[in-house]
Records
---
Amino acid sequence: MERANPTAAPLALAAGLAWIAGCTGDPPPPTGGPDPAHPALSVRLVEITRQTGLVFEHDTGEEAVYAMPRIMGSGAALLDHDGDGDLDIYLVTGPGRPNQLFARGSDGTYRDVTDESGLGDMGYGMGAAVGDYDNDGDADVYVTNYGPDALYRNNGDGTFTDATAATGIDNQAWACSAGFVDYDLDGHLDLFVANYVHYPEPKVCSDDAGRPEFCGPLASPPTRDVLFHNNGDGTFDDVSAAAGIARIAGRGLGVMCEDFDGDGDPDVYVANDGEANFLWLNNGDGTFTESATELGAALNAFASTEASMGVTAGDIDADGDLDLFMTHLSRESNTLYRNDGTGGFDDVTAPAGLAGPSFPLTGFGTAFVDLDNDGALDLVAVNGRVKRGALIEGVEPTSSLAAYAEPNLVFRNDGSGRFADISDDTGPFCGLVEVSRGLAAGDIDNDGDLDLLVSNCHGPARLFRNDTPQGRGDAHWLIVRAVDPARRRDAYGAVVTVTAGGRVLRRTINPGHSYASSGDHRAHFGLGAAVTVEQIEIRWPDGHRQHFGPQPADRIVTLIRGTTR
Amino acid sequence: MSRLVSGCILVLALVGCGGADPPARTARVPIPDPEVADADPPVREKIAAARTSLRRSPDSAGAWGRLGMVLDAHGLFAPAVVCYRQAAALDPGDGRWPYLAGIVLAVDDPVEAITLLERAAALTPDSAVLLETYGDALLRAGRPGEARRRYERALAIDPQSRKALLGLGELALRHGALDEALARLQQAAELEFCDREVHARLARVHRRLGDTDSARRETLLVRAYPDLAPVSDPVRALVTAEAVSAKAYGQRGLRALAGGRLDEAEQSFRVALDLNAASVRNHLNLAGVLVRQGRTGEAMTYFEDALALDDRDPEVHNNLAVALMELGRLDEAQDHLRTALQLDPDHDEAQFNVGTILHQRGAVEEAVTAYHRALEINPVNVPAHLALARLHAARGNTEAAVDHWRRASAFGCYEPEATANLAMAEARRGRFDHASVLLRQGLARAPDHEPMLAAAATIFATCPSARYRNGAEAVRLANRLVELNGSEHVPTLNLLAAALAESRDFEGAIEVSRQALEVARRRGEEDLAAVIERRLDLLRSGRPLHQPANPAGN
């Protein structure tokens, strides 16, 4: 049920609809959530992997059975690698095989372009981050590995050059997630890499019964995360020490770069495995202060450390601030930290309805996404164990990782930050039982709803098209691409605020979140019954606010800084 | 024959057993048979034995419960719950089974756990531990009002219920009742200071109260206490006791080591090693306890085995270096520390040990740099704070020494050396209230630590403020010191004399002082003898040996 894009807006810089510059006053107080006059729609996710030609099988390698990296990978990315306006797919795999790039064609099918693209990194792949580090208008790719990471520069013609050495990037540690972020607001995307543990050689651990098992994170020393500063001349410097990031070692798996304290510069949240998470608040002078514990975002409500894997953030209760969610090991529950409006966070997992369903599962990739376009951010988490368990019905028992497979979860947000588990109603997305790791959300068919890409450990990648019924026309939408022409790229860190139907919805331009994955570089807004958007405000990364006037809904628009369009 | 047996069972089922109430009818449940073919042999055997017993007595609640505990102890939670449920069905009057099932399910299926814990609470209404667990399960399930009632009931049963205080503190924090939250949590900290949970919550409370400094201090304490403080739970302890895997013996050994029970630790570590000789940690644990017992030569074998297993593990190199330092083989120790730091530049313990070697070699400034580097890596590294405190104290930098003792005492969970020194420093400043608190907490953790005993006895016997003196307690502590140091230790005898004087036993005080005088003279310590004689004069005139009042005193 792929629908034609009503505007088919090309995403080149000069494209997009005309906009009238709006007034410059402060936005109205935030309100949001689904339109109460219209009941929630059921979410339908249809698997289209085979029919789109996306043939990818993650390989965990042939080394020691219980080597820890085997069970941790790998992620996935959505990116427009060739600038044709649609989302291509990059899938990361284990050792001995190249990562694969699939280009989306105009007919909606995918073609393996790994060889000609030069993006077939041969490292022991963990994840990918996407951003235009050289401000040349195309998407570059950073690949995290168990082993040296790699940075690929997009040549602008759909091919890539390994620029790792030329840029001075050097991260030998085991990294899983990374994020591009302009932390010093100098117009150049810097790079934050979450490193996991020091694990130089395979070793086998045992479970409580003495059975051989993958080691947990605490069996290996922690490592330090790395912040690479972009010098603007095609090179990076490791500024981890000067920025304070290197002060504390951790076991980082997930990264999310957002302005959590609302002071205008991006902060960094690191989801650590088995220990307190980090919230690096940006001091605005090139340094960061780790503040997660005192802000209540390091430990759960019982002060327990949790095995944090994936992380996502969004304004789930439409109160104008960013809430945090992360996925965890089974018997821990995932955790939702609600922003209390003063910069602190409260663990509200249980009252939000998110605890129970996640207790038995081990979560990795995750995303807040408005699946039914009702204006409230729903929640997706993909799962798969790291310790063996009983076989779950539906799993292929011959798979070597069968005892690690689990189903995924989807929750609908009622708009107030309370979630209902709708996993049973979403079709194969939650019906398939696999060892899922990466999750990337994006509108692959540009039809106004968010589709989902899932990567599986030792299994196929799967693409799910969002076919949620549009009901009685009460699932309108808007997709915004925000471009800074001075930088010739997407304005990572820009906050887009849409006012429609009396509600105010905010999103940040930054595709990096989840686990080892990168999603759509555009901001998606479900508008419910609103057929027009009253106003769009963009707060550009440097703090400048620009307003764009009323427009019809159901459009993909590219908003360019300094212009009326 | 089989028909006859069946007939008998039928008759028993109809008429009951010995006049008791007929057993509740329970559905037959297959005996769980988890896949443990590759588990540690004792685990397999223990599970097999418990299953055999159960096959022999399939209607025995005890047999079902026992298998449940064995499975639970080895992380086989799902089949354990099956067993606990069946035990509960067979013996609905025994609260253990729903309780244990509830604990397992509290982090798997909170809703079901609540039903089970409710049943357990009805059967054991006066168990504070059960109510704490029940409260936590309700909180986890998003039912704060009900959780509050359980916590309050637990506190009514046991006013020392730390978990209940923590739960009530969390609830108050969530409702913005910050003063109540602070009071509850501070009360919990009084009961157990060395607990991450209390400090994590206090950090949040202080931040909301706008007290950033206190919030940061609490944040450091969260880092200092990586584990949650254990809760004494006799029922749960039965489960833990069933564990026989290598990992369980390793953990048992670590607990014994932390409690100073070195022989028990050695025994546990040996079993762990026998079961899993491929584990580097098992070799290191055994080697470590042997070093603690002064059997460093014997330990070297296990270090070498660990090194053979993994020569890229920085822990191996660091631990081996410590053993080599004990043997005075500093060059080799230094080599291993260098390797440890190459493998893990953030290894604060290795960095500290580098400082110790430099210190031993007389390179004091370089040692100080190394200690500070260890603290840069890990600000809660207690040995580094202690080493720096000693260095500063030796140089007369009292303020700096006190600062490091303060940190070492806090981060080290009332580390005895730091606590005793800090208490004395506080006493010298006239801050007897703080000194008393420190000593009370310190003695609770290290009752036989001699400097701590001496510091406490000194304050109780000689404090210029009557509020902090306690003659009877001073005598008790001083007598303990005599037991530990012998009756020829002049400072201890002087302390005992002061304690006896404070308790108005001047006759005894004079006698002990004479004894001290005799020892001092025998050893030719004339200056000391003169001091004792002056004290004897005071005692003969019936005056206790109080310190002069400090103008800054309270």
---
Amino acid sequence: MESVVGRILEGAPPRGASLRVVRLDGTVTVDLADLYEQSGRLAVALAELGVGPGDRIGIMAANCVEWVLLDLAALRLKAVTAGLEPGKFAADPALLERYGLSLLFTDQPADGPHIVQIRRVRRLVESVVAGTAPAPVRWEPDEASTIKFTSGSTGEPKGLAATVGSIDSSLNDVQEMFGHGPGDDLFVFLPLSLLQQRYWIYSALRHHHDVTVSVYEAAFYALPRTRPTVVMGVPGFYESAKTHIEATARAARKKAGRPAGPPDEEELRAAACALFGERIRYLWTGSAPAAPPMLRFYTGCELPIYEGYGLNETCIVSKNHPGAWREGSVGQVLPGKKVLLDENGVVSVRPDYPVNIRYEYCAPGDSERIFSPDGTVRTGDLGRIDEDGFLYILGRADDVIVLANGRKVIVRPIEERMRQSPAIGECVVFCPAESVLVAVVSPAGPADPAAIARQLAEANAAGRADERISRVLIADEPFGTANGLLSAQFKPARKAILELYRDRLKDNKEGIHAD
Amino acid sequence: MPTEIEALVLEHLERVLPEVPPEGIGLDGDLVADYGLSSLNRVLLLTSVCAAADVDLGAFTAEQVAALSTPREVADALAGHAQKVG
């Protein structure tokens, strides 16, 4: 297997491809050859500050060029990065102590020994003579270059050191499927603290394509201006964009004086093109299940969208792609991964190059619950594989409810039926009593109890008798990242939602009742 | 009567809330709590209103964008930067 990281560290890429960072406070463009050269000078400056192989550098900042430089400089020193999402951690000395950080770079107001404002990175680069570089290093596949943290769950985040072999393996498999190269521009807006978002920078350095990094506040501003060929998103992002595209197309239809009615495909395509730019080759989605109507919407707009599957603990496991795509599936399993299904359909993944075989930071017993000694990961997801090797994820094993009659109910399809209504943004189903299903609904707009009641009746009519939802609670405030009811990847945080609505879920008088 | 820019904000908000009658949408409703906009849809609303009002979204900081919670606050923020409306 080629080491992508190893190839990157062999020397500067040819000139011509760029990293562009688009934020509300401005746009910075740097040729990848210059980026590489600057990362070498930063590595030398960090070494002068005492950072060496195995030392840990924490980075807690919104996406910026300095984030990328620090990540590359750490690779060039064989130092280990810890990507820390602002808002989830506090930039204080206790953080350095807890994670054994030699330095913490941050854009947050913070003060203390070994805490450095990330804007100082520029001065560190400039403090070293141009062209200076550290001695070459070599990473072995089982060595970890970064610590990633699970996001979106309640409680203390789990920390997982990711091996270079797992990064190389996934990047090689992705390249085989999508053939990123000169002319491509990959658009990234999720936090760089999520390791997979940095993959696309590594890919740019290895395969000589452009990469645009933004932040979520500027993502929709940046897209039509930067005209990427690939967007690296998550379902919540594409759902929001769909709402906007439909609204724009309706307005354009009205303005053009066309007959009243829903926008046609051409009108939707024009609105989608205005939002994403006209160069899109494909849209990438992962990290959470995507609703089939959303996927069909983009396909109808001639924007191919490819869903995949993976966890922090496994890296990318499967992916639909132009050469092998099947609706409803999360694609065929990557060559570097093996998917094992137990007698209940619970998915385990055995990677050729495991991310790791244990968590670096977790509660007692967490590692043993997830990892086998050989690196096999018990995902807790339910799946099946069809005769052509396409993987289908049916839900979480934890979300399987065993009713009093012994029947097993998987909640995800029930939730998806509820989400078919434009009045419903998110739906999470719980079982507060042994054979009663109760849903908590986050409205897609102002709460419309009548529309939600109609959808409840439709969903119950479409499902089996034991999939019947008895009551629906309308959330007091929409699920969001700010209130902790959506994860950073815009997935409903089930545990937090359950905690918040536990009493009302049990109270039979609460909510909209099914007929 | 809403100002021209307030009307523009309301018009764009009405577009993303087709199920809601226009009289149900006001300048002082909370974009997230009352109108159910996701954080990304709130950004999209601001992006599209800025484009219509010929205001560069780059005139705002990320912190300012995060703090805008009602249509009136969006309109007030835009009013200082607007060159034209429509």
